[in-house]
Specification:
Homotetramer. It is an enzyme of class 3 (hydrolase). It is built from 12 helices and 9 strands. The chain is α/β, with parallel strands linked by helices. The chain has one domain (about 15-240, about 300-335): 3-Layer(aba) Sandwich (Rossmann fold). Strands 1, 2, 3, 4, 5, 6, 7, 8 and 9 form a 9-stranded mixed sheet that branches. The protein starts with 17 loop residues before the first helix and ends in a 14-residue tail after the last helix.
Length: about 325
């Protein structure tokens, strides 16, 4: 490795979002062999669809081969209910298209898993979504002749975390899958972001499964098709960011602000002004981590953010999974 080349290998655990991994790999205008992507923007919502097609593409951006869809909504944290309904509708349509793209039929039975710790607010996304999922499997089991057209068998569970149950979430889910035999697993979990702007404003869908806790450096057994024996779609929302990321982003903002007032910032910032963002991030982490100060940070309004985001995802899933649910009025289908 060149002495001036930055080794990001120790930071790969933080890259939960495919769009952030793509940004780190190079300019959005520069194509990466084996990686296809497109972005549509409308009404304050940016939808990025990405398909990592080859091993070379996967290695280039550090993500597994598969399909990824990311919704970015910068104003989602503002509490605008009309925007939330619009995001839920967009999510429902994108998720429905995602299911068709990977070959999941309209009648396939689905098992929704809400990962995370309901006692820790930034980690409670999964359990909160499960509370609002339209569960129907029991009707198909007990009274199948009375189920109306347009619904499919859906079950859901929040298995807790290893620290509270003593059992790996993956083992719990695997046991249920073996018994209930769903045709698709949907796993929902909180993620870690590399940028402040994406915390509680971004939703990612991926068909590569999920590894609980990967974004904060925990090596937990994953939920993947190889482990479960059925396709596993992951839905994630970044709810935390590292303190080092906040410091680095603040440095960027200060530099940008000062450049508006003086053409020469060298005297003010010296070598800091010439460093690349990732290089600066590495330096900040080297300073903070030995002191234990590279904390995971979440917004003070996280309670409200989590409730709103969980409702958006749950109502979107309800519409995407059941044809009888009006996709254009998804907000009406959460409790």
């Amino acid at each position: 490795m060149n002495e001036h080349e930055l080794d990001l290998s120790e930071y790969e655990v933080q890259i939960d979002l495919a769009v952030e991994a793509r940004e780190l790999a190079g300019s959005p205008d520069s194509p990466i062999p084996g990686v296809w992507s497109e972005t549509d923007k409308s009404g304050g919502i940016a939808v990025t669809r990405m398909h990592i097609q080859t091993d070379e593409g996967a290695q280039a951006i550090g993500k597994m081969k598969g399909h990824y869809v990311t919704l970015e909504v910068p104003l989602l944290r503002n509490g605008d209910t009309d925007l939330q309904d619009k995001v839920a509708t967009t999510f429902a349509k994108e998720f429905e298209s995602f299911l068709q793209r990977i070959g999941i039929s309209r009648t396939a039975s689905v098992f929704v898993v809400g990962l995370g710790n309901w006692n820790v607010t930034p980690d409670a996304l999964g359990p909160l979504v499960v509370e609002n999922i339209m569960v129907t499997r029991q009707f198909f089991e007990l009274m199948p002749d009375q189920v109306s057209e347009g619904y499919r068998p859906v079950s859901a569970v929040a298995p807790g975390v290893l620290g509270t149950t003593g059992i790996e979430s993956s083992d719990i889910v695997q046991g249920i899958v073996e018994k209930a035999k769903p045709e698709l697993v949907i796993a929902i979990d909180a993620l870690a972001a590399r940028s402040l702007e994406r915390v509680n404003t971004t939703i990612q869908i991926a068909d590569t499964g999920i590894h609980p806790g990967s974004g904060i450096g925990n090596k937990r057994k994953g939920l993947t098709q190889d482990i479960l024996g059925v396709p596993c779609i992951a839905i994630g929302v970044p709810t935390v960011v590292y303190a080092s990321t906040i410091v680095n982003n603040t440095m960027d903002l200060v530099l940008q602000h000062m450049e508006k007032h003086t053409p020469n910032t060298d005297k003010l910032f010296g070598v800091f002004g010439t460093m690349e963002g990732n290089e600066r991030l590495q330096l900040v982490k080297e300073v903070l981590e030995p002191m234990g100060h590279n904390l995971l940070v979440t917004p003070k309004e996280i309670d409200k953010f989590m409730e709103d985001t969980a409702n958006v995802i749950a109502s979107g899933l309800n519409a995407a999974l059941h044809e009888a649910v009006d996709t254009d009025n998804v907000a009406a289908y959460t409790h």
